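User: I'll paste a sequence; please echo it back and then give the predicted structure.

Assistant: Echoing your sequence first, then the prediction.
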Amino acid sequence: MLELRGISKQLEAFSLENISFSVEKGDYFVILGESGAGKSVILELIAGMEKVDSGFIYLNSKNITHQAIQKRGISMVFQDFSIFPHFTVAENIGYALKAGLFSKAEIKQRVLKLAEEMEISNILLRKPKTLSGGELQRVALARALAAEPQLLLLDEPLAAIDVRLQDQLRALLRKLNRKGITIIHVTHDFEEAISLANQIAVIHDGKLICRGTPDVIFQAPNHPFLARFAGIRNFFKATLVYETDTNIATVRLGSGIKINLASDVASGDGYFILPSDEIIITNDQPHSSASNTLKGEIYDIIPSFKGIDIMVNCGEMFHITITKPSKEKLGLEIGKTIWISWKAMNGRFI
Protein backbone atom coordinates (compact mmCIF):
# COMPACT_ATOMS: atom_id res chain seq x y z
CA MET A 1 0.00 0.00 0.00
CA LEU A 2 2.63 2.53 1.13
CA GLU A 3 6.29 2.32 0.19
CA LEU A 4 9.19 4.57 1.14
CA ARG A 5 12.27 4.19 -1.05
CA GLY A 6 15.54 5.70 0.15
CA ILE A 7 13.96 8.72 1.84
CA SER A 8 16.43 11.31 3.19
CA LYS A 9 15.83 14.70 4.80
CA GLN A 10 18.34 17.19 6.22
CA LEU A 11 17.09 19.55 8.92
CA GLU A 12 19.10 22.07 10.97
CA ALA A 13 20.70 19.71 13.48
CA PHE A 14 19.31 16.41 12.28
CA SER A 15 19.29 14.16 9.24
CA LEU A 16 17.04 11.33 8.20
CA GLU A 17 19.07 8.89 6.14
CA ASN A 18 17.99 6.46 3.44
CA ILE A 19 14.73 5.28 5.05
CA SER A 20 13.03 2.43 3.18
CA PHE A 21 10.07 0.34 4.29
CA SER A 22 6.65 -0.74 3.09
CA VAL A 23 3.26 -0.86 4.82
CA GLU A 24 0.59 -3.29 3.66
CA LYS A 25 -3.12 -2.50 3.56
CA GLY A 26 -4.68 -3.26 6.96
CA ASP A 27 -1.37 -3.07 8.85
CA TYR A 28 -1.02 -1.46 12.25
CA PHE A 29 2.50 -0.21 11.64
CA VAL A 30 4.37 1.38 14.55
CA ILE A 31 7.49 3.53 14.14
CA LEU A 32 9.36 3.21 17.43
CA GLY A 33 12.26 5.33 18.65
CA GLU A 34 13.50 7.79 21.24
CA SER A 35 12.62 11.48 21.18
CA GLY A 36 14.51 13.22 18.38
CA ALA A 37 15.12 10.00 16.42
CA GLY A 38 13.20 11.25 13.38
CA LYS A 39 9.88 9.44 13.81
CA SER A 40 7.61 12.47 13.46
CA VAL A 41 9.62 13.76 10.49
CA ILE A 42 8.82 10.52 8.66
CA LEU A 43 5.09 11.09 9.25
CA GLU A 44 5.37 14.68 8.01
CA LEU A 45 7.12 13.49 4.84
CA ILE A 46 4.43 10.86 4.22
CA ALA A 47 1.68 13.42 4.79
CA GLY A 48 3.38 15.99 2.55
CA MET A 49 3.97 18.56 5.29
CA GLU A 50 7.72 18.33 4.65
CA LYS A 51 9.43 17.78 1.30
CA VAL A 52 11.94 14.99 0.85
CA ASP A 53 15.52 15.82 -0.16
CA SER A 54 15.89 12.51 -1.96
CA GLY A 55 13.97 9.28 -2.36
CA PHE A 56 10.39 8.45 -3.28
CA ILE A 57 7.04 7.83 -1.58
CA TYR A 58 4.45 5.57 -3.23
CA LEU A 59 0.82 5.08 -2.18
CA ASN A 60 -1.04 2.26 -3.93
CA SER A 61 1.74 2.16 -6.54
CA LYS A 62 1.34 5.88 -7.31
CA ASN A 63 4.27 8.24 -6.81
CA ILE A 64 3.04 10.89 -4.33
CA THR A 65 6.49 12.26 -3.43
CA HIS A 66 5.66 15.76 -4.66
CA GLN A 67 1.87 15.58 -4.53
CA ALA A 68 -0.06 18.28 -2.63
CA ILE A 69 -1.14 17.42 0.93
CA GLN A 70 -4.87 17.62 0.20
CA LYS A 71 -4.61 15.22 -2.74
CA ARG A 72 -2.82 12.38 -0.96
CA GLY A 73 -5.83 10.84 0.79
CA ILE A 74 -3.92 10.75 4.08
CA SER A 75 -5.08 12.05 7.47
CA MET A 76 -2.86 12.80 10.46
CA VAL A 77 -3.58 13.20 14.18
CA PHE A 78 -1.04 15.37 15.95
CA GLN A 79 0.34 14.90 19.44
CA ASP A 80 -1.29 18.15 20.61
CA PHE A 81 -4.57 17.23 18.83
CA SER A 82 -4.70 20.60 16.93
CA ILE A 83 -8.43 20.98 17.58
CA PHE A 84 -9.99 24.33 16.62
CA PRO A 85 -10.77 25.95 20.01
CA HIS A 86 -13.62 28.17 18.74
CA PHE A 87 -15.50 25.28 17.08
CA THR A 88 -17.79 22.79 18.79
CA VAL A 89 -16.91 19.10 18.65
CA ALA A 90 -19.39 18.57 15.81
CA GLU A 91 -17.93 21.49 13.85
CA ASN A 92 -14.40 20.17 14.33
CA ILE A 93 -15.35 16.72 13.04
CA GLY A 94 -17.20 18.08 10.02
CA TYR A 95 -14.65 20.73 9.09
CA ALA A 96 -12.76 18.63 6.52
CA LEU A 97 -16.02 17.71 4.76
CA LYS A 98 -17.01 21.32 4.07
CA ALA A 99 -14.40 21.60 1.34
CA GLY A 100 -15.91 18.61 -0.50
CA LEU A 101 -19.12 18.07 -2.41
CA PHE A 102 -21.19 17.17 0.64
CA SER A 103 -24.57 18.59 1.57
CA LYS A 104 -25.27 19.79 5.11
CA ALA A 105 -27.40 16.70 5.65
CA GLU A 106 -24.60 14.39 4.50
CA ILE A 107 -22.07 16.16 6.73
CA LYS A 108 -24.39 15.88 9.74
CA GLN A 109 -24.99 12.19 9.09
CA ARG A 110 -21.25 11.50 8.79
CA VAL A 111 -20.50 13.47 11.97
CA LEU A 112 -23.15 11.58 13.95
CA LYS A 113 -21.86 8.22 12.71
CA LEU A 114 -18.25 9.02 13.63
CA ALA A 115 -19.29 10.42 17.01
CA GLU A 116 -21.07 7.15 17.74
CA GLU A 117 -18.03 5.10 16.71
CA MET A 118 -15.75 7.27 18.88
CA GLU A 119 -18.24 7.18 21.76
CA ILE A 120 -18.50 10.99 21.91
CA SER A 121 -22.11 11.53 20.84
CA ASN A 122 -22.85 13.20 24.17
CA ILE A 123 -20.28 15.99 23.72
CA LEU A 124 -20.96 17.14 20.15
CA LEU A 125 -22.10 20.63 21.22
CA ARG A 126 -19.26 21.27 23.64
CA LYS A 127 -16.14 23.37 23.03
CA PRO A 128 -12.61 21.84 23.27
CA LYS A 129 -11.67 23.76 26.44
CA THR A 130 -14.29 21.75 28.37
CA LEU A 131 -12.94 18.34 27.26
CA SER A 132 -10.52 15.89 28.86
CA GLY A 133 -7.41 14.65 27.08
CA GLY A 134 -9.11 11.38 26.19
CA GLU A 135 -12.13 13.19 24.75
CA LEU A 136 -9.91 15.53 22.72
CA GLN A 137 -8.07 12.53 21.27
CA ARG A 138 -11.35 10.93 20.21
CA VAL A 139 -12.45 14.18 18.57
CA ALA A 140 -9.13 14.39 16.71
CA LEU A 141 -9.53 10.79 15.51
CA ALA A 142 -13.10 11.40 14.36
CA ARG A 143 -12.03 14.51 12.44
CA ALA A 144 -9.14 12.61 10.79
CA LEU A 145 -11.49 9.80 9.72
CA ALA A 146 -14.25 12.09 8.43
CA ALA A 147 -12.75 12.29 4.94
CA GLU A 148 -12.33 8.49 4.81
CA PRO A 149 -8.53 8.56 4.27
CA GLN A 150 -6.61 5.72 2.67
CA LEU A 151 -4.06 5.96 5.47
CA LEU A 152 -4.22 7.27 9.07
CA LEU A 153 -1.06 8.74 10.66
CA LEU A 154 -0.84 9.06 14.45
CA ASP A 155 1.91 11.11 16.11
CA GLU A 156 2.35 9.96 19.74
CA PRO A 157 -1.44 9.61 20.14
CA LEU A 158 -1.32 8.45 23.77
CA ALA A 159 1.42 10.77 25.06
CA ALA A 160 -0.96 13.49 26.27
CA ILE A 161 -3.54 11.06 27.68
CA ASP A 162 -3.98 10.26 31.35
CA VAL A 163 -2.55 6.81 32.14
CA ARG A 164 -5.98 5.62 33.31
CA LEU A 165 -7.45 6.33 29.87
CA GLN A 166 -4.67 4.91 27.73
CA ASP A 167 -6.06 1.35 27.77
CA GLN A 168 -9.40 2.65 26.47
CA LEU A 169 -7.69 4.52 23.64
CA ARG A 170 -5.58 1.47 22.76
CA ALA A 171 -8.76 -0.61 22.54
CA LEU A 172 -10.34 2.01 20.27
CA LEU A 173 -7.30 2.11 17.97
CA ARG A 174 -7.27 -1.69 17.70
CA LYS A 175 -10.99 -1.58 16.86
CA LEU A 176 -10.41 0.94 14.07
CA ASN A 177 -7.62 -1.21 12.65
CA ARG A 178 -9.80 -4.34 12.76
CA LYS A 179 -12.35 -2.47 10.64
CA GLY A 180 -9.72 -2.23 7.91
CA ILE A 181 -8.13 1.17 8.54
CA THR A 182 -4.39 1.15 7.81
CA ILE A 183 -2.54 2.96 10.59
CA ILE A 184 1.02 4.26 10.98
CA HIS A 185 1.61 5.15 14.62
CA VAL A 186 4.67 6.89 16.05
CA THR A 187 5.71 6.31 19.66
CA HIS A 188 8.70 6.19 22.01
CA ASP A 189 6.90 3.68 24.26
CA PHE A 190 8.04 0.06 23.92
CA GLU A 191 4.95 -1.44 25.59
CA GLU A 192 2.61 0.73 23.52
CA ALA A 193 4.24 -0.54 20.35
CA ILE A 194 3.93 -4.19 21.36
CA SER A 195 0.28 -3.81 22.42
CA LEU A 196 -0.81 -2.37 19.06
CA ALA A 197 1.51 -3.24 16.19
CA ASN A 198 1.60 -6.16 13.82
CA GLN A 199 4.71 -4.58 12.25
CA ILE A 200 7.34 -2.34 13.87
CA ALA A 201 10.10 -0.20 12.39
CA VAL A 202 12.75 1.00 14.83
CA ILE A 203 14.40 4.39 14.16
CA HIS A 204 17.61 5.47 15.89
CA ASP A 205 19.53 8.69 15.13
CA GLY A 206 17.75 9.15 11.83
CA LYS A 207 18.40 5.60 10.62
CA LEU A 208 16.16 2.55 10.30
CA ILE A 209 17.90 -0.13 12.35
CA CYS A 210 15.35 -2.93 11.98
CA ARG A 211 11.77 -3.79 11.13
CA GLY A 212 9.57 -6.83 11.55
CA THR A 213 6.95 -8.36 13.81
CA PRO A 214 7.13 -7.47 17.53
CA ASP A 215 8.11 -10.98 18.62
CA VAL A 216 10.97 -11.20 16.12
CA ILE A 217 12.34 -7.75 16.96
CA PHE A 218 12.26 -8.02 20.72
CA GLN A 219 13.05 -11.71 21.20
CA ALA A 220 16.26 -11.35 19.20
CA PRO A 221 17.36 -7.69 19.33
CA ASN A 222 20.34 -6.97 17.09
CA HIS A 223 21.27 -3.51 18.35
CA PRO A 224 22.16 -2.16 21.83
CA PHE A 225 19.49 0.53 21.54
CA LEU A 226 16.87 -2.10 20.77
CA ALA A 227 18.05 -4.29 23.64
CA ARG A 228 17.53 -1.37 26.05
CA PHE A 229 14.04 -0.89 24.66
CA ALA A 230 13.31 -4.56 25.33
CA GLY A 231 14.60 -4.21 28.89
CA ILE A 232 17.73 -6.33 28.28
CA ARG A 233 20.54 -4.90 30.37
CA ASN A 234 23.24 -7.51 29.71
CA PHE A 235 23.96 -6.96 26.02
CA PHE A 236 27.60 -7.09 24.93
CA LYS A 237 29.55 -6.98 21.69
CA ALA A 238 31.21 -10.35 21.40
CA THR A 239 33.01 -12.88 19.22
CA LEU A 240 31.89 -16.50 19.14
CA VAL A 241 34.17 -19.43 18.43
CA TYR A 242 32.39 -22.71 17.71
CA GLU A 243 34.46 -25.88 17.65
CA THR A 244 32.64 -28.45 15.53
CA ASP A 245 34.83 -31.32 16.78
CA THR A 246 33.83 -30.83 20.42
CA ASN A 247 30.49 -29.03 19.92
CA ILE A 248 31.68 -26.38 22.38
CA ALA A 249 30.93 -22.70 21.83
CA THR A 250 32.91 -19.96 23.56
CA VAL A 251 32.06 -16.28 23.56
CA ARG A 252 34.76 -13.68 24.14
CA LEU A 253 33.64 -10.23 25.30
CA GLY A 254 35.56 -7.03 24.56
CA SER A 255 37.23 -7.08 27.97
CA GLY A 256 38.61 -10.56 27.31
CA ILE A 257 36.08 -12.43 29.47
CA LYS A 258 35.37 -15.92 28.09
CA ILE A 259 31.88 -17.39 28.38
CA ASN A 260 30.67 -20.93 27.70
CA LEU A 261 27.55 -21.06 25.58
CA ALA A 262 25.11 -23.74 24.47
CA SER A 263 24.96 -22.77 20.79
CA ASP A 264 25.46 -24.20 17.33
CA VAL A 265 25.77 -20.78 15.69
CA ALA A 266 28.72 -20.44 13.32
CA SER A 267 31.79 -18.57 14.54
CA GLY A 268 31.80 -14.82 14.04
CA ASP A 269 31.15 -11.41 15.54
CA GLY A 270 27.84 -10.44 17.11
CA TYR A 271 26.24 -9.82 20.48
CA PHE A 272 25.94 -11.81 23.70
CA ILE A 273 22.64 -11.53 25.59
CA LEU A 274 22.04 -12.69 29.16
CA PRO A 275 18.73 -12.13 31.00
CA SER A 276 19.33 -10.40 34.32
CA ASP A 277 17.04 -12.79 36.21
CA GLU A 278 19.00 -15.88 35.05
CA ILE A 279 22.13 -14.91 37.01
CA ILE A 280 22.78 -16.21 40.52
CA ILE A 281 24.66 -14.21 43.16
CA THR A 282 26.64 -15.92 45.93
CA ASN A 283 29.02 -14.65 48.59
CA ASP A 284 31.45 -17.54 47.98
CA GLN A 285 32.68 -19.17 44.81
CA PRO A 286 29.91 -21.57 43.74
CA HIS A 287 30.40 -25.28 43.13
CA SER A 288 27.31 -25.99 41.05
CA SER A 289 26.27 -27.05 37.57
CA ALA A 290 26.57 -23.49 36.34
CA SER A 291 29.26 -23.43 33.66
CA ASN A 292 29.99 -19.71 33.91
CA THR A 293 31.36 -18.14 37.08
CA LEU A 294 32.78 -14.63 37.54
CA LYS A 295 34.11 -12.72 40.53
CA GLY A 296 33.14 -9.06 40.81
CA GLU A 297 32.43 -6.04 42.95
CA ILE A 298 29.01 -4.51 43.50
CA TYR A 299 28.99 -1.16 41.71
CA ASP A 300 25.44 -0.06 42.51
CA ILE A 301 22.13 -1.27 43.94
CA ILE A 302 18.97 0.08 42.29
CA PRO A 303 15.34 -0.61 43.28
CA SER A 304 13.12 -1.42 40.29
CA PHE A 305 9.55 -2.56 39.68
CA LYS A 306 10.87 -6.13 39.16
CA GLY A 307 12.81 -6.18 42.44
CA ILE A 308 16.39 -5.04 43.03
CA ASP A 309 18.87 -4.42 40.21
CA ILE A 310 22.43 -5.26 41.30
CA MET A 311 25.18 -3.85 39.09
CA VAL A 312 28.35 -5.93 39.34
CA ASN A 313 31.70 -5.00 37.79
CA CYS A 314 33.47 -8.15 36.61
CA GLY A 315 35.57 -6.42 33.99
CA GLU A 316 32.23 -5.91 32.21
CA MET A 317 29.20 -4.45 33.98
CA PHE A 318 26.57 -7.12 34.62
CA HIS A 319 23.01 -6.45 35.81
CA ILE A 320 21.38 -9.02 38.08
CA THR A 321 17.75 -8.86 39.20
CA ILE A 322 16.95 -10.34 42.61
CA THR A 323 14.25 -9.93 45.24
CA LYS A 324 14.56 -7.61 48.22
CA PRO A 325 14.58 -10.55 50.70
CA SER A 326 17.44 -12.18 48.73
CA LYS A 327 19.44 -8.95 48.85
CA GLU A 328 19.01 -8.71 52.61
CA LYS A 329 19.80 -12.40 53.17
CA LEU A 330 23.05 -12.10 51.18
CA GLY A 331 23.98 -8.84 52.91
CA LEU A 332 24.68 -7.12 49.62
CA GLU A 333 26.05 -3.59 49.64
CA ILE A 334 28.00 -1.34 47.29
CA GLY A 335 31.70 -2.28 47.18
CA LYS A 336 31.22 -5.85 48.37
CA THR A 337 33.02 -8.65 46.48
CA ILE A 338 30.69 -11.42 45.29
CA TRP A 339 30.40 -14.20 42.71
CA ILE A 340 27.92 -14.43 39.86
CA SER A 341 27.11 -17.55 37.87
CA TRP A 342 24.76 -18.83 35.18
CA LYS A 343 24.27 -21.91 33.02
CA ALA A 344 25.53 -22.06 29.44
CA MET A 345 21.96 -22.51 28.17
CA ASN A 346 20.82 -19.19 29.72
CA GLY A 347 22.94 -16.97 27.46
CA ARG A 348 22.37 -16.29 23.77
CA PHE A 349 24.55 -15.16 20.88
CA ILE A 350 23.06 -13.27 17.94
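The chain has nine helices and 20 strands. The mean pLDDT is 90.
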